[in-house]
Structure formats: C-alpha cells, structure tokens
Amino acid sequence: MTNPEGAEPPPDPLLRVPTYLMFELIRLARRRSAELYPDEPLRLPHTLALAWLAGHGPMSQRELSERLSFDPGDLVAVIDLLERHGYVERHRDARDRRRYSLHLTDAGRLALHDRRARGERMNDLLLDPLNPVEREQFRALMLKILAHHDPRFADAPIPGEIPSRPDRSMPHR
Question: Whole domain around residue 72: which residue ranges?
C-alpha cells in the first residue's frame, strides 16, 4: 500500500461526504494502476478513445471529443500519443476532405484488449472487499447517478430496475 504507516484517517466530517470518498477512490485507483503497470503509457483517456473508435468506427476528432465529453484541445494530446504508438491513424475524411477521421489500427485493437484485461484486474483489486452482489449494487448506483445527470447514460440498463425510457422533457433536479 502506498499510504505511509501510521497515517491518520481523515476527519469525520469528510468521511460523510460522498464526493470526497469518490475523489479518494479515484486517487487510489490511479496509485494502484501506476504501481501495477509503471511502464504503461496508456491511461484511462487513451483507453476511452480506443473503446469509442472500436465500438463506433472511424470518426472525426471533433466527433470523438463530443462523444467522450472531452475538451477538443485536451483530446489532441491523447490522439497524438495513440498515433505515435501506432494505435490510431488519421485519414482524410472521404465525406469532407478538409477533415481527418480517426481509424483504429490492429495494434490499437490489441492494445484495447490488453487494457480491458488490465482493467478487469484493477477492478478485482479495488473491489476485492465487496462480494459479487455488492459489486453489482455499487455499479448500479453509479449508473443511476450518471443517468440522472448525463444523457449519455440515460438509456444504460440499471440492474434491478425495469428498463424504461425516461421522459426527457422533464428537467433533472
């Protein structure tokens, strides 16, 4: 573990703040990932870009930034690294010669497969204290929160609930 011996727990009020706990969980995931895979050049943003391209085919950098909800300027560095490693290629868009479309390469598919396997290992490590039912409940609760706030998750099936299409005319509270 990377925490120093004898480290004091956070003050009680912080332990009651879910957003603080989420922040700490993300920090833990990043630390553990760096410990397990210290030479891994790909991080979550790179893996997300590969997954979107694998799932939806070639698309422009702008389309990808919109689908990922990434700032287009931030995505440039992500795509540049993927291109340097041979995981993505930029091709002139056949529909609009002024644009480039991003294409996943065979090496990119292989890298995505490897990252998914590593991600499963990471999930197993991080979620080890939870039994299978608790893991599914945790995932379902995260999806429920995301679906409430982000339309990209609105149609995701939430385990334990009857699938339905929410009335999109009603604003979220």
Answer: 42-153
